[in-house]
TrEMBL record:
UniProt name for this protein: Molybdopterin-binding protein
Species, as recorded: Kribbella antibiotica
Oxidoreductase molybdopterin-binding domain location: 240-375
Keywords assigned by UniProt, alphabetized: Membrane, Transmembrane, Transmembrane helix
Pfam families the UniProt entry points to: Oxidored_molyb (PF00174)
TM region positions: 21-45, 65-86, 107-129, 141-160
Domain of life: Bacteria
Amino acid sequence: MKLPAPPTEKSFPSPLHHPRVATVIGRWLAVAVLVCFLTGLFSHFQQHTPAWLHIPSRPASLYRVTQGLHVFSGTIAVPLLLAKLWTVYPKLFAKPELKGLLEKASILVLVSAMALELFIGYLNTLQWYPWPFPFKETHYALAWIIIGALLVHIAVKLPLIRTHWRRTAEVVAESLPPAITGMTRRGLFRTVAGAASLVGISTIGQSVPAFGPIAVLAPRKPNVGPQGLPVNRTAEAAGVPGIPADWRFTISGPQQLSYTIDQLRALPQSRSDLPIACVEGWSQGARWEGIRIRDLLHLCGAPASSRVRVVSMEKGGFYATTELPPEFAADPLTLLALRLNGGELALDHGFPARIIAPNRPGVLQTKWVHRLEVIS
Ligand SMILES: Nc1nc2c(c(=O)[nH]1)N[C@H]1C(S)=C(S)[C@@H](COP(=O)(O)O)O[C@H]1N2
Ligand SMILES: [Mo]
Protein backbone atom coordinates (compact mmCIF):
# COMPACT_ATOMS: atom_id res chain seq x y z
CA MET A 1 0.00 0.00 0.00
CA LYS A 2 1.28 3.42 -0.91
CA LEU A 3 1.23 6.05 1.85
CA PRO A 4 -0.22 9.43 0.91
CA ALA A 5 2.43 12.10 0.35
CA PRO A 6 3.02 14.45 3.29
CA PRO A 7 1.31 17.83 2.90
CA THR A 8 3.14 20.69 1.29
CA GLU A 9 2.28 24.37 1.23
CA LYS A 10 0.30 23.64 -1.94
CA SER A 11 -2.04 21.32 -0.02
CA PHE A 12 -3.76 24.40 1.44
CA PRO A 13 -5.23 26.20 -1.55
CA SER A 14 -7.95 27.98 0.44
CA PRO A 15 -8.01 31.74 -0.23
CA LEU A 16 -8.30 32.14 3.57
CA HIS A 17 -4.57 31.36 3.73
CA HIS A 18 -3.80 34.05 1.16
CA PRO A 19 -1.23 36.75 2.04
CA ARG A 20 -4.02 39.32 1.70
CA VAL A 21 -5.72 37.75 4.74
CA ALA A 22 -2.45 37.69 6.67
CA THR A 23 -1.96 41.37 5.82
CA VAL A 24 -5.41 42.45 7.01
CA ILE A 25 -5.37 40.48 10.28
CA GLY A 26 -1.70 41.34 10.76
CA ARG A 27 -2.61 45.03 10.62
CA TRP A 28 -5.19 44.64 13.38
CA LEU A 29 -2.77 42.65 15.47
CA ALA A 30 -0.02 45.22 14.90
CA VAL A 31 -2.28 48.03 16.18
CA ALA A 32 -3.17 46.02 19.29
CA VAL A 33 0.49 45.18 19.94
CA LEU A 34 1.60 48.79 19.48
CA VAL A 35 -1.05 50.15 21.85
CA CYS A 36 -0.20 47.43 24.36
CA PHE A 37 3.52 48.15 24.10
CA LEU A 38 3.26 51.93 24.50
CA THR A 39 0.81 51.79 27.40
CA GLY A 40 2.99 49.10 28.97
CA LEU A 41 6.06 51.33 28.70
CA PHE A 42 4.12 54.10 30.43
CA SER A 43 3.16 51.76 33.24
CA HIS A 44 6.74 50.54 33.56
CA PHE A 45 8.14 54.08 33.77
CA GLN A 46 5.51 55.00 36.35
CA GLN A 47 6.88 52.25 38.58
CA HIS A 48 10.55 52.62 37.65
CA THR A 49 10.98 56.28 36.76
CA PRO A 50 14.42 57.06 35.34
CA ALA A 51 16.00 60.28 36.69
CA TRP A 52 15.60 62.14 33.39
CA LEU A 53 11.88 61.49 33.16
CA HIS A 54 9.24 63.69 34.80
CA ILE A 55 5.83 62.11 34.73
CA PRO A 56 3.12 64.76 35.14
CA SER A 57 0.40 64.26 37.75
CA ARG A 58 -2.29 65.29 35.24
CA PRO A 59 -4.57 64.42 33.55
CA ALA A 60 -5.73 62.80 36.78
CA SER A 61 -7.28 59.78 35.05
CA LEU A 62 -4.53 59.27 32.47
CA TYR A 63 -3.19 56.09 34.04
CA ARG A 64 -6.70 54.72 34.37
CA VAL A 65 -7.12 55.11 30.60
CA THR A 66 -3.67 53.85 29.60
CA GLN A 67 -3.79 50.80 31.85
CA GLY A 68 -7.38 50.03 30.78
CA LEU A 69 -6.15 50.18 27.16
CA HIS A 70 -3.14 48.03 28.02
CA VAL A 71 -5.20 45.18 29.37
CA PHE A 72 -7.88 45.65 26.68
CA SER A 73 -5.42 45.58 23.77
CA GLY A 74 -3.55 42.63 25.29
CA THR A 75 -6.78 40.70 25.74
CA ILE A 76 -8.07 41.22 22.21
CA ALA A 77 -4.59 40.40 20.86
CA VAL A 78 -5.20 36.78 21.92
CA PRO A 79 -7.94 35.99 19.33
CA LEU A 80 -6.13 38.15 16.75
CA LEU A 81 -2.88 36.22 17.24
CA LEU A 82 -4.70 32.89 16.99
CA ALA A 83 -6.37 34.00 13.75
CA LYS A 84 -3.09 35.25 12.32
CA LEU A 85 -1.35 31.97 13.12
CA TRP A 86 -4.20 30.01 11.57
CA THR A 87 -3.99 31.96 8.28
CA VAL A 88 -0.28 31.35 7.90
CA TYR A 89 0.12 27.85 9.32
CA PRO A 90 0.41 26.17 5.86
CA LYS A 91 3.84 27.85 5.77
CA LEU A 92 4.91 25.23 8.29
CA PHE A 93 4.74 22.70 5.47
CA ALA A 94 6.81 24.73 3.02
CA LYS A 95 10.09 23.19 1.89
CA PRO A 96 12.79 24.26 4.30
CA GLU A 97 15.26 26.55 2.61
CA LEU A 98 18.56 27.64 4.04
CA LYS A 99 17.90 31.17 2.74
CA GLY A 100 14.90 31.74 4.95
CA LEU A 101 16.27 30.03 8.02
CA LEU A 102 17.15 33.19 9.89
CA GLU A 103 13.74 34.63 9.16
CA LYS A 104 12.09 31.42 10.37
CA ALA A 105 14.08 31.65 13.58
CA SER A 106 12.95 35.24 14.13
CA ILE A 107 9.32 34.22 13.59
CA LEU A 108 9.75 31.40 16.10
CA VAL A 109 11.06 33.92 18.63
CA LEU A 110 8.24 36.35 17.82
CA VAL A 111 5.45 33.79 18.12
CA SER A 112 6.71 32.14 21.29
CA ALA A 113 7.49 35.45 23.01
CA MET A 114 4.03 36.79 22.12
CA ALA A 115 2.25 33.65 23.25
CA LEU A 116 4.12 33.68 26.57
CA GLU A 117 3.64 37.44 27.04
CA LEU A 118 -0.12 37.30 26.46
CA PHE A 119 -0.46 34.21 28.61
CA ILE A 120 1.37 35.55 31.67
CA GLY A 121 -0.27 38.95 31.19
CA TYR A 122 -3.70 37.36 31.23
CA LEU A 123 -2.92 35.28 34.32
CA ASN A 124 -1.72 38.49 35.94
CA THR A 125 -5.16 40.06 35.44
CA LEU A 126 -6.45 37.09 37.44
CA GLN A 127 -3.92 37.91 40.17
CA TRP A 128 -2.36 34.55 39.60
CA TYR A 129 1.41 34.23 39.55
CA PRO A 130 2.11 30.50 39.28
CA TRP A 131 5.73 30.81 38.08
CA PRO A 132 9.12 31.09 39.75
CA PHE A 133 10.33 34.16 37.79
CA PRO A 134 9.47 37.76 38.65
CA PHE A 135 6.45 38.80 36.58
CA LYS A 136 7.20 42.47 36.03
CA GLU A 137 10.78 42.07 34.81
CA THR A 138 9.90 39.12 32.56
CA HIS A 139 6.87 40.88 31.09
CA TYR A 140 9.00 43.94 30.34
CA ALA A 141 11.93 42.03 28.80
CA LEU A 142 9.58 39.97 26.61
CA ALA A 143 7.96 43.21 25.37
CA TRP A 144 11.29 44.39 23.93
CA ILE A 145 12.01 40.99 22.39
CA ILE A 146 8.57 41.08 20.73
CA ILE A 147 9.03 44.59 19.37
CA GLY A 148 12.49 43.73 18.01
CA ALA A 149 11.34 40.50 16.37
CA LEU A 150 8.22 42.24 15.05
CA LEU A 151 10.27 44.95 13.33
CA VAL A 152 12.42 42.28 11.66
CA HIS A 153 9.26 40.40 10.62
CA ILE A 154 7.62 43.50 9.13
CA ALA A 155 10.84 44.51 7.34
CA VAL A 156 11.17 41.05 5.78
CA LYS A 157 7.52 40.92 4.74
CA LEU A 158 7.33 44.51 3.55
CA PRO A 159 7.12 43.65 -0.18
CA LEU A 160 4.31 41.18 0.53
CA ILE A 161 2.51 43.60 2.84
CA ARG A 162 2.77 46.34 0.19
CA THR A 163 1.34 44.12 -2.54
CA HIS A 164 -1.61 43.11 -0.40
CA TRP A 165 -2.25 46.31 1.51
CA ARG A 166 -5.21 47.06 -0.78
CA ARG A 167 -7.74 44.65 -2.15
CA THR A 168 -6.63 44.20 -5.76
CA ALA A 169 -8.81 42.91 -8.60
CA GLU A 170 -6.55 39.88 -8.85
CA VAL A 171 -7.08 39.02 -5.19
CA VAL A 172 -10.85 39.40 -5.54
CA ALA A 173 -10.88 37.10 -8.58
CA GLU A 174 -9.24 34.23 -6.72
CA SER A 175 -11.20 34.60 -3.53
CA LEU A 176 -14.02 32.13 -4.13
CA PRO A 177 -14.97 30.44 -0.88
CA PRO A 178 -13.32 27.03 -0.44
CA ALA A 179 -15.63 24.09 -0.96
CA ILE A 180 -15.05 22.61 2.51
CA THR A 181 -15.88 25.56 4.77
CA GLY A 182 -17.74 27.79 2.39
CA MET A 183 -16.41 30.75 4.32
CA THR A 184 -15.55 33.83 2.34
CA ARG A 185 -12.64 36.06 3.21
CA ARG A 186 -15.04 38.73 4.30
CA GLY A 187 -16.78 36.13 6.47
CA LEU A 188 -13.47 35.26 8.10
CA PHE A 189 -12.69 38.94 8.75
CA ARG A 190 -16.11 39.40 10.33
CA THR A 191 -15.65 36.30 12.48
CA VAL A 192 -12.23 37.39 13.73
CA ALA A 193 -13.31 40.99 14.33
CA GLY A 194 -16.44 39.69 16.07
CA ALA A 195 -14.47 37.35 18.33
CA ALA A 196 -12.02 40.11 19.27
CA SER A 197 -14.88 42.56 19.97
CA LEU A 198 -16.75 40.02 22.05
CA VAL A 199 -13.69 39.28 24.18
CA GLY A 200 -13.01 43.02 24.48
CA ILE A 201 -16.57 44.03 25.38
CA SER A 202 -16.90 41.31 27.99
CA THR A 203 -13.72 42.38 29.83
CA ILE A 204 -13.63 46.17 29.40
CA GLY A 205 -16.26 46.51 32.15
CA GLN A 206 -13.49 46.05 34.72
CA SER A 207 -12.39 49.60 33.95
CA VAL A 208 -15.36 51.16 32.13
CA PRO A 209 -18.34 51.13 34.53
CA ALA A 210 -20.94 51.39 31.73
CA PHE A 211 -19.89 47.91 30.55
CA GLY A 212 -19.82 46.49 34.08
CA PRO A 213 -23.06 44.46 33.81
CA ILE A 214 -21.88 42.53 30.73
CA ALA A 215 -18.29 42.05 31.91
CA VAL A 216 -18.67 38.27 32.16
CA LEU A 217 -15.00 37.64 31.37
CA ALA A 218 -13.65 40.37 33.68
CA PRO A 219 -11.90 38.91 36.72
CA ARG A 220 -13.00 41.92 38.84
CA LYS A 221 -16.21 43.87 39.13
CA PRO A 222 -15.05 47.43 39.84
CA ASN A 223 -17.91 48.23 42.24
CA VAL A 224 -17.80 45.04 44.31
CA GLY A 225 -15.96 45.35 47.60
CA PRO A 226 -16.16 47.21 50.90
CA GLN A 227 -17.25 50.84 50.39
CA GLY A 228 -17.98 50.12 46.70
CA LEU A 229 -14.32 49.51 45.81
CA PRO A 230 -12.45 46.23 45.22
CA VAL A 231 -9.62 45.30 47.56
CA ASN A 232 -6.45 44.10 45.93
CA ARG A 233 -4.65 42.98 49.05
CA THR A 234 -6.53 42.65 52.31
CA ALA A 235 -5.14 43.84 55.64
CA GLU A 236 -4.97 40.21 56.70
CA ALA A 237 -2.95 39.18 53.63
CA ALA A 238 -0.60 42.12 54.23
CA GLY A 239 -0.23 41.20 57.90
CA VAL A 240 -1.74 44.44 59.19
CA PRO A 241 -3.99 43.54 62.14
CA GLY A 242 -5.31 47.05 62.87
CA ILE A 243 -3.79 49.81 64.94
CA PRO A 244 -2.53 49.98 68.52
CA ALA A 245 -4.18 52.40 70.97
CA ASP A 246 -1.12 54.66 70.93
CA TRP A 247 -0.99 54.83 67.10
CA ARG A 248 0.67 57.92 65.67
CA PHE A 249 1.31 59.31 62.25
CA THR A 250 4.70 60.98 61.85
CA ILE A 251 6.23 63.17 59.19
CA SER A 252 9.92 63.89 59.13
CA GLY A 253 11.30 66.86 57.21
CA PRO A 254 12.93 70.05 58.40
CA GLN A 255 10.70 69.48 61.45
CA GLN A 256 9.47 66.22 62.95
CA LEU A 257 5.73 66.15 63.53
CA SER A 258 3.56 63.51 65.12
CA TYR A 259 -0.25 63.22 65.14
CA THR A 260 -2.88 60.99 66.71
CA ILE A 261 -5.84 60.01 64.50
CA ASP A 262 -8.01 62.65 66.11
CA GLN A 263 -5.38 65.30 65.48
CA LEU A 264 -5.18 64.24 61.82
CA ARG A 265 -8.96 64.52 61.59
CA ALA A 266 -8.77 68.03 63.04
CA LEU A 267 -6.41 69.25 60.28
CA PRO A 268 -7.99 71.01 57.24
CA GLN A 269 -9.59 68.30 55.09
CA SER A 270 -9.76 68.32 51.28
CA ARG A 271 -11.72 66.22 48.84
CA SER A 272 -10.44 64.43 45.72
CA ASP A 273 -12.43 62.37 43.25
CA LEU A 274 -9.82 59.94 41.99
CA PRO A 275 -9.73 56.39 40.67
CA ILE A 276 -7.75 53.43 41.88
CA ALA A 277 -6.32 52.00 38.65
CA CYS A 278 -4.73 48.65 39.33
CA VAL A 279 -1.98 47.37 37.03
CA GLU A 280 -3.94 44.12 36.96
CA GLY A 281 -6.58 45.80 34.86
CA TRP A 282 -9.48 46.92 37.03
CA SER A 283 -10.15 50.51 37.96
CA GLN A 284 -12.81 52.37 39.86
CA GLY A 285 -13.43 56.01 40.72
CA ALA A 286 -14.01 57.00 44.35
CA ARG A 287 -14.40 60.03 46.58
CA TRP A 288 -11.53 60.54 49.02
CA GLU A 289 -11.21 62.97 51.91
CA GLY A 290 -8.10 63.75 53.88
CA ILE A 291 -5.14 66.07 54.21
CA ARG A 292 -3.27 67.38 51.19
CA ILE A 293 0.31 66.14 51.13
CA ARG A 294 1.44 69.65 50.21
CA ASP A 295 -0.27 70.97 53.38
CA LEU A 296 1.57 68.37 55.48
CA LEU A 297 4.84 69.34 53.78
CA HIS A 298 4.10 72.98 54.56
CA LEU A 299 3.41 72.12 58.22
CA CYS A 300 6.79 70.46 58.60
CA GLY A 301 8.60 73.24 56.80
CA ALA A 302 9.36 71.45 53.52
CA PRO A 303 8.68 72.90 50.04
CA ALA A 304 5.49 71.66 48.36
CA SER A 305 7.48 69.97 45.61
CA SER A 306 9.56 67.64 47.73
CA ARG A 307 10.26 64.01 47.05
CA VAL A 308 8.50 62.02 49.77
CA ARG A 309 8.97 58.48 50.99
CA VAL A 310 5.72 56.85 52.05
CA VAL A 311 5.99 54.18 54.74
CA SER A 312 3.24 51.66 55.41
CA MET A 313 2.64 49.70 58.60
CA GLU A 314 2.88 46.64 56.36
CA LYS A 315 6.16 44.87 57.02
CA GLY A 316 8.09 43.69 53.96
CA GLY A 317 6.37 43.20 50.61
CA PHE A 318 7.02 45.20 47.45
CA TYR A 319 4.69 48.06 48.29
CA ALA A 320 5.37 48.60 51.98
CA THR A 321 7.32 51.75 51.09
CA THR A 322 6.89 53.85 47.97
CA GLU A 323 8.01 57.25 46.77
CA LEU A 324 6.00 60.28 45.73
CA PRO A 325 7.95 62.28 43.12
CA PRO A 326 7.78 66.10 43.59
CA GLU A 327 5.13 66.56 40.83
CA PHE A 328 2.79 64.23 42.71
CA ALA A 329 3.54 65.51 46.22
CA ALA A 330 2.80 69.09 45.11
CA ASP A 331 -0.47 68.27 43.33
CA PRO A 332 -3.44 69.60 45.35
CA LEU A 333 -5.37 66.40 44.58
CA THR A 334 -2.80 64.19 46.33
CA LEU A 335 -4.04 63.29 49.79
CA LEU A 336 -3.23 61.40 52.90
CA ALA A 337 -6.77 60.04 52.74
CA LEU A 338 -8.74 59.22 55.91
CA ARG A 339 -12.17 58.77 54.34
CA LEU A 340 -13.55 56.93 51.32
CA ASN A 341 -16.97 57.38 49.69
CA GLY A 342 -18.37 59.23 52.70
CA GLY A 343 -17.16 56.91 55.48
CA GLU A 344 -14.02 56.25 57.46
CA LEU A 345 -11.52 54.11 55.48
CA ALA A 346 -12.17 50.39 55.89
CA LEU A 347 -9.18 48.49 57.28
CA ASP A 348 -8.84 46.70 53.91
CA HIS A 349 -8.68 50.05 52.13
CA GLY A 350 -5.83 51.27 54.31
CA PHE A 351 -7.29 52.46 57.63
CA PRO A 352 -6.38 54.77 59.24
CA ALA A 353 -4.58 56.59 56.40
CA ARG A 354 -3.52 55.96 52.83
CA ILE A 355 -2.09 57.77 49.84
CA ILE A 356 -4.29 58.70 46.93
CA ALA A 357 -2.74 60.61 44.02
CA PRO A 358 -3.84 61.47 40.46
CA ASN A 359 -2.47 59.62 37.39
CA ARG A 360 -0.80 56.84 39.36
CA PRO A 361 -0.83 53.03 39.25
CA GLY A 362 -2.80 51.41 42.08
CA VAL A 363 0.34 49.72 43.38
CA LEU A 364 1.69 53.12 44.37
CA GLN A 365 -1.46 54.18 46.25
CA THR A 366 0.03 52.94 49.51
CA LYS A 367 -2.31 51.74 52.28
CA TRP A 368 -1.90 51.75 56.09
CA VAL A 369 0.47 54.73 55.98
CA HIS A 370 2.01 55.74 59.30
CA ARG A 371 5.01 57.73 58.20
CA LEU A 372 6.12 60.23 55.56
CA GLU A 373 9.78 61.14 55.09
CA VAL A 374 10.88 64.14 53.08
CA ILE A 375 13.82 62.87 51.04
CA SER A 376 14.77 66.03 49.12
N1 LIG B 1 0.78 48.81 51.90
C1 LIG B 1 0.19 48.39 50.76
N2 LIG B 1 -0.47 49.26 50.00
C2 LIG B 1 -1.06 48.88 48.84
C3 LIG B 1 -1.00 47.54 48.42
C4 LIG B 1 -0.28 46.63 49.23
O1 LIG B 1 -0.16 45.44 48.94
N3 LIG B 1 0.29 47.09 50.41
N4 LIG B 1 -1.60 47.17 47.24
C5 LIG B 1 -1.73 48.22 46.23
C6 LIG B 1 -2.49 47.84 45.06
S1 LIG B 1 -1.76 46.71 44.04
C7 LIG B 1 -3.67 48.45 44.71
S2 LIG B 1 -4.40 48.16 43.20
C8 LIG B 1 -4.34 49.37 45.62
C9 LIG B 1 -5.76 48.91 45.81
O2 LIG B 1 -6.38 49.67 46.79
P1 LIG B 1 -7.70 49.10 47.48
O3 LIG B 1 -7.38 47.71 47.95
O4 LIG B 1 -8.05 50.03 48.57
O5 LIG B 1 -8.74 49.10 46.39
O6 LIG B 1 -3.67 49.44 46.87
C10 LIG B 1 -2.27 49.52 46.81
N5 LIG B 1 -1.73 49.80 48.11
MO1 LIG C 1 -2.89 46.83 42.01
